[in-house]
Fold:
Amino acid sequence: MHTLYTFPFACSFAVHIGLERLAVPFEITWVDRGYARKIMTNGFDALNPKRKVPALVLPDGEVLTEMVAVLDWLDEQGAPRTALRRRRHLEWASFIATELHQQVLGPAFDPATPEAGVEDARNRLLPPVLAHLEAAVVGRGTLLDTPSPADDFLYWATRLLAHRWPETVQTPGLQALLEQTTAQPPVRTALRREVEALAAARAASPQAS
Ligand SMILES: N[C@@H](CCC(=O)N[C@@H](CS)C(=O)NCC(=O)O)C(=O)O
Structure:
């Protein structure tokens, strides 16, 4: 059994989709978001002292953390790739993790970010990142020659942007990625589970975001 520790619609949603695609046995332990963007759920720090999701426990007990490492592991479990393609996958995963996830989405969804920081992320930092990603996926639908976990990471990021700043993702490549990925059965299953978990978290704590 694989166990994914996450909270609804965290970056780990891409890992959730990846596990669903692999069709391996897995379960999810939902944790609570913490103060100052550190998860405080009892005992979680023993698993990941950084107190962030994702944390993925493999059947042999190994604990994997950090999006790029977990996406790389997921990619290894799928169809074989050449070493060159594997490096390209790491490049995309790292680009999305650093330039989009940490640089833009982190501050955009952190209530403690000053308004000027949010505006800077939206107006200055985001456009060149999205232009690069759009150019990569338009007319093709994937970042590499075949689908990869980095595409699911981009899908998660694009969904969040569509929620926060819909005007930023009105480009043909990102729109096609959103529509086509949402229609895939493993994605629909993961999405339904995340929506249910979000509703449960909100019911348990109406202040939860
Ligand atoms: N460096 C970590 C960062 C992961 C990260 O930012 N996780 C966020 C969710 S997307 C988190 O756990 N935040 C804790 C919180 O908001 O309480 C990685 O790449 O996996």
